[in-house]
Design brief:
The protein is about 5% helix and about 40% strand. It is built from two helices and 28 strands.
């Protein structure tokens, strides 16, 4: 798979490259001599220039469950990895999508200021088999142009995408959804706050009664999620003996100590694990947005497309544009357009039944171990924090 370098940079000097490596779904050639940081979920390469503050980061994220639509996956990844993590407010400048061997590639970039330097953030999202793998570049210098171009051109997939046949339920329901997962096999959701380069971000762990755990919150919630339908090597085992336990998988080993039924200590870290409260049958009253401090800005209360959603206790909602990527063109992508309808919350899944026939599923939880029926100033929708007005 050839991915064109979409950031126009001055190409300076020659770059020596190492042998090809693989990480999850992709194969690539990293620049030799760059610093490398690895964890169970990312690989980060950093290039720098002695005597300057110039830098270039390439961050490769582990593949996660995703929708079948590559653009939808890109938009979700941009919101989480670029807009939220880096506080980038500019919309991405999109490049032509590419499909190769069944894999869809969407890419876009935006500029922002980092410590006074004009900086570029680039996101590449590769989608297929109901998964996506993301790559992020952050640089404040043109001197890494050759490295960037050669790196992107080296990326290919370890195999062609398999065709996945999906059965779709009706997109609109006149009757309430039913949680078909037996109570005895339903998962717990644990939230662990983890530091990023600029802030602290929630990471979710889905833990089943038999000890199987998935180190993410699925992008469409838990209502239709199981190991049988989403089996990949991200899964691991959670064990607990007395108050001592661990999460162990191919990519991580995390030792924990249970403090209470809803609290675990991550050994060696100050940030803890919190058991999320069940949200089955929850109804809400109020308005929420992923923009922190939005309630102080009167423009968000004005008519038009806004990143705000209103919920009512009667089970109705008014989505003013929380999934829209460009508020000046709210209907650019019909599947993300604003609308009204009815909602349900089951098994950590928010189900939005739009009046135009769409049904959207998003993961949903309260903040940490708070009960959102009583404390909903902060909620998590799509694993992103939403703030109440």
């Amino acid at each position: 798979m050839k991915i064109a370098c979409i950031v126009v940079l001055l190409l300076e000097g020659m770059v020596t490259f190492a042998q090809k490596q693989t990480f999850d779904l992709i194969r690539y050639t990293p620049p030799a001599g760059w610093e490398v940081e690895k964890s169970e979920s990312i690989i980060k390469y950093t290039g720098s220039q002695t005597g300057t503050q110039d830098y270039c980061h390439w961050i490769i994220y582990k593949a996660v469950s995703a929708s079948a639509d590559g653009k939808t996956n890109f938009d979700a990844a941009w919101h989480e990895l670029i807009a939220n993590t880096l506080s980038v407010t500019n919309l991405p400048q999109m490049q032509p999508a590419v499909t190769d061997q069944g894999w869809q590639t969407h890419s876009g970039f935006a500029t922002f200021s980092d410590n006074g330097f004009n900086t570029v953030a680039l996101l590449i999202t590769i989608s297929g088999e109901n998964q996506m793998q993301n790559l992020v570049m952050i640089t404040n210098s043109q001197r890494f142009g050759i490295a960037t171009q050669q790196f992107t051109e080296s990326i290919d997939m370890i195999r062609p995408a398999r065709t996945i046949l999906e059965t779709h339920e009706p997109t609109f329901r006149s009757e309430p959804s039913v949680n078909t997962t037996p109570e005895s096999t339903r998962a717990e959701v644990w939230m662990n706050m983890q530091p990023t380069s600029t802030s602290v971000k929630a990471k979710f762990y889905t833990v089943y009664p038999n000890g199987d755990y998935y180190p993410h919150m699925p992008l469409e919630g838990l209502l239709h999620f199981s190991k049988a339908t989403h089996n990949n090597d991200s899964w691991g085992k959670f064990t607990m003996q007395g108050s001592e336990g661990s999460f162990e998988s191919k990519y991580e080993t995390i030792a924990v100590k249970k403090i209470s039924p809803t609290l675990m200590e991550k050994k060696g870290y100050a940030l803890k694990f919190y058991k999320c409260t069940s949200v089955d049958g929850l109804t809400l009253e109020g308005a929420w947005s992923y923009i922190a401090g939005w309630s102080k800005d009167p423009s968000y209360s004005q008519p038009g497309c806004k990143p705000v959603i209103y919920f009512k206790k009667d089970g109705s909602f008014d989505d003013r544009g929380i999934f829209v990527t460009n508020t000046t063109m709210p209907n650019q992508y019909p599947e993300r357009a604003p609308g009204t309808g009815t909602y349900e919350i089951l098994n950590f899944t928010l189900i939005l039944n739009y009046r135009d026939g769409r049904t959207v599923y998003k993961p949903f939880s309260g903040a940490a171990d708070k009960n959102p029926a009583k404390d909903n100033e902060g909620l998590y929708i799509g694993t992103n924090p939403f703030y109440k007005k």
